Amino acid sequence: MESYYKTKSIFKVISKWKWHLLVFVVVAGALAVLFSSSLFIKPKYKSTATLYPANIVTVSEESEAEQMLELIQSTDITFKIIDAFDLYEHYGISKDAPNHQDKILKYYEGNINFQKTPNEAIVISVIDVDPQKASDIADSIIVYYNEMVLALNQEKSEEIVNIYRREYEKKQIEIDSLASLLKTYRTEYGLLDLSAQVEKYTEAIYMGKSLDEARTVLGNWKEYGAEYQKTDSMYYYAISDMYEAKYIYESAVRDAEKVQTYAHVISKPFPADKKSYPVRWVIVLFSIIGAFLTGVIILSLIEGNKK
Q1: pTM of the model
Q2: Does position 228 have pLDDT exceeding 50, yes or no?
């Protein structure tokens, strides 16, 4: 019941002072229109880009989109954008100020936003008083992202190139050494093929032919055969390892020299022809509502004091 009388009292105040309230609201609305104009608030324009990750090899449990988001938000790209577009001067921040980096980063984060969508896309949003600059910043972020990922991949590929180049060269030296040793066994001791030679020279001895040569070769097999076979086996596996190292080395060289992009740009940024800030009708509406409520409260207090 008390609430009913309070409400009734408020409506009485509104009815009694309706013209005063109307004038107050109209003035507030007019002031809101004035102060939300470009004379007092510079209009800002938004440029957006939507992209999906591509050709990314994840290095943790994060998704490709999450990894892409972290790279785009890295300080490396942030300061590249700040330097490329001279945002210190653009935002009116002095580099001589003791906390200039903190200020520029706050402006950067306030005007440049990154968001991951439920569909694993990354949306870049840039707001600026210059629509062309907003579009250029969004486009440059994508360019710097591609350059950053390419540099990281090339760096890792070059590490693999160096590792397997040394392995390849090491195996070549080992193969040359084993080949030289095998040549010695073959030229000086006549060791070529164990099964074939043993069969051949055993038959020769049995038939009474070339006895000296047969006895010499068979004796060499008896004395050096195990080492020869060991060397021959090492030579075979060394060649196999060399070709494997050569394949990995050449693949790493191709990766190190490869130039590619790491984002599918679904929606490219472009200069907006309509401002996105401030939204004048929202400012005017809230100003009118605020003025009306403020007027009602003030008039209610005045009426209360009179009573």
Answers
A1: 0.66
A2: yes
